[in-house]
Structures
1.
Amino acid sequence: MYDFGDIVCTVVITGAAPTHVVDVVESVPPTERKARHWALLWHEWTLVVVGSLALATVMTWPTLRHPTRTIPSDTGDPTMQAWQMAWSGHALRTDPLSLWQANAFHPEPNSFAFTDTLLGYAPAGLIGTGPVAALVRYNIVFVLVCALAFVGAYALVRQLGAGRLAGTVAGIAFACAPWRLAQAGHLQVLSTGGIALSLAMLARGHGWSLRHGYRPERARPGWALAGWCAAAWQLSLGFGIGVPFGYALGLVVVVAAATWLRRRPPLPRRLLLADGAGLAVFLAVAAFMARPYLAVAEQFPYVRRSWENLQWASPPLRGFFTSPGTSIVWGEMHAGARAALGHRGETSLLPGFTLYALAALGLVISVWTLRQRLLLAAGVVASIVLGMGTQGPWGGRPTYGLLYVLPGFDGIRTPGRLVIWTTLLLAVLAAGTVTALAQRVRARPVGLALALLPLLLVAEGLNRMPHPDVPAAPAALATAPAPLLVLPSGATIDGIPMMWATDRFPPMVNGAAAFTPQRQASIRDAASHFPDADSVALLRATGVRSVVVVRAAVKGTPYEATLEGRTDGLSVRRVDTPEAVVYLLDPA
């Protein structure tokens, strides 16, 4: 019997040469069809996805108000990341083998691996071309990463055995934590939804939950494979978040294997095959991503973070109770605490006081067992201590120092980003609390208080995030001979010319990343007195054919004098336009 939506048919197959006899047995009445449609509309996961999109739009507003001309947070890293998505899509569309040889940082090789690449968003980069498309693409993805964080945390705690209200609480806590406001300019740090979602898929695939343990009959090999693929996708967004995630997955595998060896429950063969295939995908992606980064580390040894480099970016304990300044609820209230943290903007790491309170209550009231609660609490404490980096006990040597010796951790700039794991563990603890209270509460006032918990968490995430206008590209940039240099140039401002160049991706000296190559630093220095004989000779030796000086941007910078530069005897031709001055180094 087959259900084709409106008609249910019975197919009879007989004999060596089958004949198909189709009898109309039943026609589904319109009322039943309508009921099915409503059931789909009000299905839990339909509501979760739609709700996550609505929540993300509100929490990131006004990101989608003017997506063609504004960008969240600032015009530094976000414009560079808009270029990253555009470049990966361009490379896949035109020459996938040259993916790592980006047009920025000319003439350095493997320049796409100079920082986290957001490679997992490459499919979005296939849609549209040019700076406006890059900006719209970034703004949409910025909203979607918040939605995915909600869905991932919701799915995880639901799979672990929590209720729907608890899932909502965990999703909001993970997606709207105040510390995310301090990372608003770092899309790779905000992109944490894949972590929770992959863990949820892996748990579902293995038929495991906190409340019921391992149940072989509930194993779903397809979900297990999907979980490994989601983990591989998360890793492709960047190693800054991906390296700790990879080691966390390894720890989960070791603990699961040790538990299995002790009890030896049955493991379906299809599940083992799915795990093997999924792990192969994850390791293949890890190897593909690691190869260019290892080449960059060999070429530029100073990209590795020394222990001393970590000191300025390591938060003290009070950082985990301090809110960023853009928080509407806590921003002004925590101004003194932020001042005590110094200039380190990424050390305001508050997961949320409501979340802290629910997690603390979870040590007393919870659907999780006492042992599980203590392990979760230990994980929270451990993640905070490790996240303190060099500010940890005894200078961090016996804590974060144990991670620092592991491959990959010497490339991570900010230990405090381990707050991702603090928040996720707190959310799981809080989910146990909310589920237990929802099961026990019968009084209407207390039930109403539980229903208001999501609003409290949302309130802590409300913000005054700036959305500056991104300047339009000067028309001369579209025709300037490449390779080229755009002035002014600097580590915090080169994202703008990089994004401008997404219409044709010309090779350019400009580039913003996690470090500055020595050759690029030398060119920037020389260009401060361009055009003179030395700077022109250096640029020509580098292969640069034109220098574009943006009139509005160069004022007030060390490059302002280049607007009136003299080219006598330099074989350089100057072309003046309303928006820029273009110097042609090969005037023929």
2.
Amino acid sequence: MDSLNDTDLALMKFGVGQPVPRTEDPTLLRGEGRYTDDINLPGQAYAVMVRSKIAHGRIKGIDTKAALAMPGVLMVLTHADLEAAGFGPLKCPVSIPQRDGSPMKTPPRPSLAKDKVRFVGEAVACVVAETQAQAKDAAEAVELDLEELPAVTTPTQALEPGAPPLHDEAPGNLVLDFHYGDAEAVKKAFAEAAHVTRLEIVSNRVIVNAMEPRSAIGSWDAAKERYVLHVGCQGVFGLRGGLAKDVLNVPADRLHVLTGNVGGSFGMKAPPYPEYGPLLLAGKSLGRPVKWTDERSESFLSDHHGRDHQRVAELALDKDGKFLAVRLTGYGNAGAFIYPPLPATTNAVKNVIDVYKTPAMEVNSKVVFTNTTPIAAYRGAGRPEGNYFMERLIDTAAREMGIDRIELRRRNHIAAYAMPYKAPSGMNYDSGDFAAILDKAVAVSEWNGFEQRKADSRKRGKLRGRGIGSYLEVTAPAGKEYGGIRFEADGTVTMLSGTLDYGQGHASPFAQVLSEKLGIPFERFRLLQGDSDQLKAGGGTGGSRSAIVGSEAFLEAGAKVIEQGKAIAAHVLEASAADIEFARGRFTIAGTDRGIGLLELAGKIRSGLKLPNDVPQTLDVSHISDTPPSAFPNGCHVAEVEIDPDTGQVDVVRYFMVNDFGTVINPMLVEGQAHGGVVQGIGQAIFERTVYDDQGQPLTGSYMDYALPRASDVPFFTVESHPVPCKTNTLGVKGCGEAGCAGALPSVMNAIVDALAEVGVTHIDMPVTPEKLWRVLNGR
């Protein structure tokens, strides 16, 4: 056996599959991260938004005279100013066909309210002053003359005859009447079923609460005659395209978007927001940068919310418990303006089948405008909900039919030998071993020792329950992604990607992939993502796609580096390119020990190596990848809860998960993603309650009213891996960012209902707050 060289040893430590620490962590832990609010540009002014204090009203006038007369005030912008400058409204970039094939309703959203306000917190004016305090004072002096109109906050209210209309373009407040599936086949399956389980079930509205509030700085680069926007987002390339096209009405290259560190997003910071247009107009008009940073109270109102679905979920089974069909019928709350309504529609379709053979399916969704903060993507964007609906149906069916819930799942699993499997959702599952994962989860959770633990809880006056949450989620679909590799003068190698790290930790895993591919030391790599000038494509980060698409783009780019390097090395080594081999970071002439290292070759090129015209002139690569199709991460989570019947308090006391993320590039980072997703799932299940009153006023507008889980509210997690590599991308990775939520919602809620079953409760909706549970237990 050949002895291991330094390259081999480095790959054993830093290659794919190794738990390499995140390279950005030392900087972030020292407080040296550079978030948008940390940026202060010379001569910058400050903006504050004037927001509506009512949920629905007609704008009769906006009086800015008093504000303009206040010290330090530079300007006050309204919709009329944006319109005069040629700025357009925000638009929904996706249109999903209605049941009848017609397009869904997509009324535009003005950056500053035009004729009406439609939710509490909608921006009506933008005040710019020398200091933030002066802008705040002046914003309070702007007088809004609003004729208050009746408000609706739920889809059922909004669809009632005579309900107040939000948009003229959407009669009856209906955005989209969506249908998917074979209605006749589903109807037949339910008619012939030996048993039908039916649940009215809610996926509650959540407020995203990223650690870093939104912030942006708008300016005008007079030399290059273009706008510049510093902003926290999920992908600078896509944000630039949408903002330039719809709002600024300029070619994409007339807008430069820059993003530094981003303190969380979970889908919320992905799209353009109304504040960005006024900032850019103010920056151009004043000839100086204009900075705006949300306060947390504003974030509660103006950041997009997540979830908010009401469903009737139904499962048809034969006498042996085999699934015949699943049907979802219900509503998705769009809020006051429409963003791609994927969670309530297509993502529900893709994910409700879960890991089970289900011959027929149907999804009926009415997406509806209401006088509430708009709903957009939130970690999973319909994927966790689909799995949650199915897993709650299965536990309920098992109880109703007297079948063990594990056995019922086993009877209906899609078998590993059945792969590839074409689901009625239209998805083609390429890989998976669902039965083995369930068995492993049962074993690691010590399922068979539960009765003793339950008895111990009973002695302490507590109810105890356990729940299973199997899941399969469909990652984002194929598209375009950028993979650039640039050899720098200082000997480092820059990786350029159209994905964007907002907490996931991209730098280490991408470096691991390329270190293994090119044999370059891990520590030489640097990652560049947040500069739209440096990118030629980019889908951003979302839908658990970054490891899949980013790695694929870099592997393809790495192959081009090797191809170009062989031609250049052939010239340097005075050999035929056909005789050049590459391995372990070194080009060699086949059958000899003559060669040159990749980094040494890069150094020669930088030093002025003269190359023939028919030989590549650089090792640098700028590559746009056609990304792989969706992958199917899956797994099984097991939760145990204790309930105090005297107070209604729910505690998650044990938590186990077995996940199939395919090839795991960095297990340390993957476990961190799983932990975060599970905590957010626990938050939605138990803590996070968003409430509006009858006038559309939010009653949960601060952390005094809106509860988030803390470290003390969750147990230690046991994380096991059962990887079945995906067959549709080179590395076999499946994605992991949203899986924690997908497993947590059903496992925790099934555990709660299991605990309550002994007192006769068979269903309860999220969030299971102490007040709600106490009322259920006490018949109030």
3.
Amino acid sequence: MKVTRLFLLILSLFSFGSLNAQVIKGTIKNSATLEGAPAVSVHVKNSSEGTYTDDRGRFQLTIKKKFPLVLILSSIGYETKEVNVASSSAAVEVMLNPTSILGQEVVVSASRMVQKKLSSPVTIEQLGSKEISNSPQLNYMDMIQGLRGVDVTVSSIGFTSISTRGFNTSGNTNFTQIVDGMDNQAPGLNFPLGSAISLTQLDVDNVELLSGASSALYGSRGLNGTMVMTGKNPFKYQGLSVLVTQGVNHVKNSRDYDPVSASPYYDWTIRYAKKINEKLAFKVNGQYTRANDWVATDSANKNGPGTRFTDPNYNGANFYGGATSVDINPFLQGALAGDPSLAPLIDPLLVKPNYVARTGYPEYGYLDNKAQLLKVNAELRYKINSRLEAIVSGTYGTGNIVYTNDTRYQIKDFKVGQYRAEVRSENWFVRAYTTSENSGRTIIAGPTAQLINEGWKTSYDGNVGGWYPEYTGALLASLAGGAPLNEAHLAARAFADQGRAELGSPEFNALKEKISNTPISEGGTLFLDRSKLYNAEAQYNFTDLVKFMSVIGGVNWRLYSLNSKNTLFPDKGKPINVKEYSAYVQLAKKVAADQLSLSTSFRYDKNTLFASPKVTSRASAVYEFIKENFIRFSYQNAYSFPSNIQALQNTLNGTNSYSSGGSSLLLNDNYQFNKYPPYTLESVSDFQDSGNASDLKRFEYNDIKPQSVNAFELGYAALIGKRVMFDVLGYYSTWKNFIGYANVANTPGTDDVNAFKDHNTYVQYNIAFNGGQSVNTYGYAASVSVDLSHNFMAKVNYYSDHIKNKNNSQVNNFNTPDYHVNVDFGNSGFGKKQQWSFGTTLRYKPGYFYVVSGGLAEGQVPSSAVIDAQVSYKLIKARSGIRLGATNITNRYYSTGIANPNIGAVYYVTYAYNIL
């Protein structure tokens, strides 16, 4: 009884102030289908009072304003309507007429304030919930591939990295992903977490994507674009919604190799939102995805043109363990010293180095390809008054996915949480949030495989025993028997591999389990990343106080607490704290009879890893020279502090091989480059071939510093006859202190360059550093959208990105084809009561050269033409729908990057309940 009384007391407090108010009830329907129209704004004219229709088009509004009054009914996709209400005695029944939304879309991210997309000062692409619901793709992250200016790298099901304007790589730290105002980056690794803790499929209200530089508004690491995602407001979008997709992938064809048999694909999503009263609302979301993942099968040899059957030093891009490579000449010389009669066989071999790699393991059967993702979200909103709202939310994600970087990483049992508290009004907000990550039992494919090889048989032990001495002995025996050199090498490998821990064997599984569960700092390959991010920010719109222009200002504080137990960063004793402080202001003014919109932004940022702060700016002008015809020009000075990885990474990447940040503190203190100088790895290889020390080239390094870009853009957007919208643009950018990667080596403990002759006495590093020369990028794009009436819509976009005077000593991650073409065609409702709908998309890319950061692989990505399609039928009385569709319907396998998986078709059927 006490609990019941307490609950009633709380509800009465939430309802306080409405005892003497009146209630208007009603229903709003779509005039074409006679269905209830959900999420329609019902606003009392000349008042702050208002509400939204629920999932069945019903509304209930408690008002204090006296009758008669006027209700303004509005929603994107419908004609706005005003309704006179004389009293609350009769329910309001209204039909709204559907209308084209072309050119009426509004965006927020371009200027941190609401404006029409058509008149945005910078290039922006957008996805709304209605577009997502009619898409043939399995999720909205896949839809983003078809937006103008976008490049993606798909590492696996569940891990898609997004970028714009050419700089494309997996885990791009220069692309910012914002979810409900929160930076969605991994606290330690600094790249966006993709769909791991982003919005669930049913909770997406809007996705806005800014192409190119955007750090003047969104801070560091916005050089390659920013994506802003907004979840659905539980006051506006109510009810229970369910989306169940069952499919099949890995369907065999006669053209492409796929080691996985046909297997099921599952994706289940649920959302429930409830407005308890005019003050209190909540929502809960959950999504679970499970499938057999696509597998990376790139067999290209990283050590030369040969194959694993022709090159003894074969190291395949997706064959792991072959990075252990040794010159067997010392073993040949030892055999010659023991038996001089072998000279006719051995002397011809000793005229050059004879490198031999250990036998690698293919990805399939080595990395677990069972992809799983689970994410849950809850949010509570309380309206303190009509202009002030408090929000608390939490999102948690976990699962198993694979990620591509300097090798392939199976991120197993990872856990990420993001939690927010916010108070906002029409003119300001204060927000605080935190993100925590747990790397789980991540398996680093390359180093783990190398240690597995060492575990079942050591490479060598004092030139007496081990895999290489056995290999050398078997090689000489085959040659003595008259075998050709290539056949002798194959026979030697077969002999040395006797007793090998084969994939799936108890010995293999035991070694893999032991190594991958031993921390890197203790000789294994386990990450122990438990890093956290803390962020607090506030923004105020001064427009009500400053009448002659629009003024927005804000401040931001951030703390990265890097805690990897010395497995990712040099945080041996305690976490490393990196702080950032920011402040920004934006000024905007309309002149020339409101035809010309001018705006400028300034931002100040300080990162405690670097001595100097950064001040960045943006200026733009938008001129409406004819109604619904806009010319825009913008200049942006953007920057990026080196990410935590680019500055501080200290990770074992293989036997005597490290992935490294570019901080001189790290390079001098940890690697002692100031005592034992580094040389480019390419020149070390030349020295080994020639024996001439003059071939060695010093790697000149400095403390890594922020990179920056000055970007100019000119564009033209127009809406013609309310049926055709097109947008064209061109841009030119100049990059300074561009951060790329270089492969270098040094010989710890000695500065004698002859030590480089023995592969096992020097250490390799893949190091982030600033290029000394300016780098220029440029490009152009165009898009056309046509409303063909009767709910038919067609869209086409084309874009092209290029780089010139690039620094060839760096891996710059400019991985993009010469052009992209995307085509969409669909209908959101036709036939009786508009029960049928369909959607089709085509994405075409010509072949292009792709380089993976960290030296994993490089090569030509083949051209691809990917067609997705779906057809849906609506069960009106059951408030449900059935969809039949396929992604990559032709099942022509394609890849988005070298050493990444080949992606085939997914054929699916979807049941949707109460999808708004």
4.
Amino acid sequence: MVTVLQLCYNRLTGGLPTQLGSLHKLTVLALQDNRLTGAIPASLGDLGMLTRLDLSFNNLFGSVPVKLANAPMLKVLDIRNNTLSGNVPPVLKRLHAGFQYENNLGLCGVGFPNLKDCADSSKIYRSRPEPFKPNGLNQKNIPESADLPTECSKANCSSPSGSAKIGVVSGIVGVALVLTVAALFTFAWYRRRKQKIGSAFDSSDSRLSTDQVKEVNRRSASPLISLEYSNGWDPLDKGRSGNGFSQEVFESFMFNLEEVERATQCFSETNLLGKSNFSAIYKGSLRDSSAVVVKCIAKTSCKSDESEFLQGLKILTSLKHENLVRLRGFCCSKGRGECFLIYDYVPNGNLLQYLDVKQGNGKVLEWSTRISIIYGIAKGIRYLHESRGSKQALVHQNLSAEKVLIDNRSNPLLSDSGLHKLVADDIVFSTLKASAAMGYLAPEYTTTGRFTEKSDVYAFGMIVLQILSGTRKITQQIRHAAETSKVEELMDMNLEGKYSDSEATRLGRIALLCIHESPYHRPSIDNVIQELSALMSSC
């Protein structure tokens, strides 16, 4: 059964079929940034479950149907950048920031910011050049919501016989367009059912449909459920004081839903990079052509307390370091029931892909690159641990080879830094199972249930052993080789002996100190960097 139809950015032409009003289970209809013409069908008001309708950036004309404005579940109506005209139904004021109507010069209404009163607006509108008219359309074929001028001068009117001929041709063309668009909708519906694109998440790692999000809204008292940054976000209201946020800084990170959808091509499965038990990751491209990664997190997986959630965002936006993946921005969508984090795209994958490499594979890291990566990871951890200015000290909590991304200069970048401050505690705990299975989880966590800076140091030590040995699983044999300085048994065979014995021995000892059973006997990350700096200066 159709619940979501997203055909944005597809260069669709023609008019909107009135038959859309018969898709009674439809909750989201997104058609922005196409080349659609004609009027908005009043039949869309028959969609009793419709929560979001996005028709922005098209060439639609006529008025906003009163029947559509009265759609009972409608929360978001975006009609920006069309050629709509006429009186805006006053009932749409109930949507508040959910109603977006900018750049429709012919619209008027009372109580809507930036809209003229209809009495004044009609005079101004008639004084401008004549509005768009769809040449050759028979009036009988124009949807009931159209608001076209009926006057025409003799010079501009065709003869009766000519009009009749054009009307017949237009009728045929109109039917063809309706059938074509309807076929596109049907195909898109089938494809979306097959691919499961464009919904939020459930426990089986597929995404929630919007009607499921509404059920979450009904049952949850979380203030996050009512947030929608794409239409303005009240918790960041400039009038607020004492919340510790810089409005200017936050605004520089804010994306709207349209930008996120455009970047990911409406969350096309071709751009899907991977899924976890609480998020999906898409590759995307911003308007400036820069490559990004969009991490989609269901709001049910985020902190339920609004102040905690905002504090988490504040922490994420404060993190800036050469060895951390850069956060480009964020967006929250009530309609989709998701929060989006937009990061720089890192082209060379994660460190995990450079472990257990078969001989002859081109992904083998050279010795100098391995030392550089170890040093870069340590610097990234030190940045997180230190308190400087408005930045508070932070423990990563989930360091692993998978969280270390490699850029095109083989520079290591830590990902998901501070993410635990944004997502719910039960989600954080669920991600620890993988860390424990791979040996990254410090032993004291099982008794204290707490993360400290020494927990990160422990995970760092495990990563160092992985880089030296070139393997994911650190066995007792590898530990013993490091303890006894048997370098040939410790090192990755793919290096074929092209490494320094003394450097490998020192790195092995640093790793062993970091993974000491007792956190009190582990070095601080500052001490580790001092050792690494001394090692690199002697290279």
